[in-house]
Amino acid sequence: MTYVAAAQRYDSMPYHNCGRSGLKLPRVCFGLWHNFGHDFNEQNSIDMCRRAFDLGITHFDLANNYGPPPGAAEQFFGRMLKRDFAPYRDELVISTKAGYLMWPGPYGEWGSRKYLISSLDQSLKRMGLEYVDIFYSHRYDPNTPLEETMGALDAVVRQGKALYVGLSSYNAKRTREAVAILNQLGTPCLIHQPSYSMLNRWVETDNLLDTLEELGIGVIAFSPLAQGLLTNKYLSGIPDGSRATQGKTIREGHLCEENIKRIKGLNEIAQQRGQSLAQMAIAWVLKDSRVTTALIGASSVAQLENSYGSLENLVFSEDELREIDVFAQDGGINIWSLSSTS
User: Fold this and answer.
1) Phi, psi torsion values for 216, nearest 5 degrees
2) Beta bridge partner(s), residue 294
3) What stretches of the chain adopt beta strand conformation (E)?
4) What are 51-72's pLDDT values in tens digits?
5) Which of 25, 140, 230, 297 yields a CA-CA distance of 20 to 30 A from 224?
6) CATH class given for the domain over 15-231+277-315
7) 110: nearest Cα among 149, 71, 82, 84
8) What is the CB neighbour count within 10 angstroms for residue 177?
9) pTM attached to this predicted model
C-alpha cells in the first residue's frame, strides 16, 4: 500500500528556529539510535517513521554506527526514503554523525579528516542520498587537532554533501574552540547535540547551555528519558527485554537504590501534572528556552505517541520545579562523559 502523508501533519507541531539560523526544527525529533537494526521488526520501524512524520516530526536523526550491526539504521532509512518518503525529501531534515567505531583499523573512528569524510560518503550511499541536512562530529577526539576535524566538517559542506554541521557531546570549552575554527572557515556551527535529562544535568554545570545561547547555536537534547530510566518501565523492577537486560545503554549501577527513589519521586509529580513520567521528562527538558528540540526514540507507535503527548503541557510552576529539583539529581548515567569532558 502506497504511503501518503497526513494532510494535517503541520497543524499541531510547533517549530522553533535552531539558534541564529533560518532552519526550524519540530519541538520533538525522532532518533533511530535503537530499534532500527537487524534485531528489530522492520514493519514496526516503518510504522513508527510514518507516524512520526504524520505528527509533524520532520527531523530524523541517525549516525553511521546505529544498528546493530553498524550501518543498519541508515540502510533501513534508505529503504524508507525510497519506498515512502521520496516525495517528501524536501520536507525532511535528515542528520547523521561520525565519531564512534565504525570499521576496523586506525581510520574507523574518532575525528580525522579521512574517517569523517569516508564515513559520510558511506552514509550517503547507505541512505541513497546526495546530501544530508546536518552532519555531526559525534564526539571530541583528543588525539586529532580540532582544526583537522572542523576542517573536515567545512569540507563536506563545500562539497555539497551536507547543508549544515553540528557537534555532539563536546563540552563548553571544546565547543568554543571548535566554533571559533568553523567561523573562521566560513561554515558556522548550526546545532549541538548533548545528552540531557533530569538525571543527567551536566550541560548546566558545564555552562554548555549558556555557551550555546551566547554563540547562537541550537540545542537538540538527546536521551531526555535517561536511556529509558525516566519511564514507568523500571518502577516495579527490571522487565524482560528491557535495555537493562540486553546490556545496551543501561548498566547495572544505573538502577541503584538512589536512582529508583528519584524515579519514583518524579513519577509522583508527573501523575499530579496529569502526565506520564516520560512526558514530564521531555517537557522538563523543553522548558528551557535554550533547548530547540528534544530527541526522542521509541520501540512502538504507542510509545512514540506518548512522547509526542508531552507537548500538551510544557508549563511548570515554580513549586513544581522546586519539587522536581529534589529528585532531579545526577544519577551517574552519563555514559558519554569521556566524550564531553576531554
Assistant:
1) 75, 35
2) 28, 221
3) 15-17, 24-26, 28-31, 59-61, 93-98, 132-137, 162-168, 189-193, 218-222, 293-296
4) 999 999 999 999 999 999 999 9
5) 140
6) alpha beta
7) 149
8) 15
9) 0.93
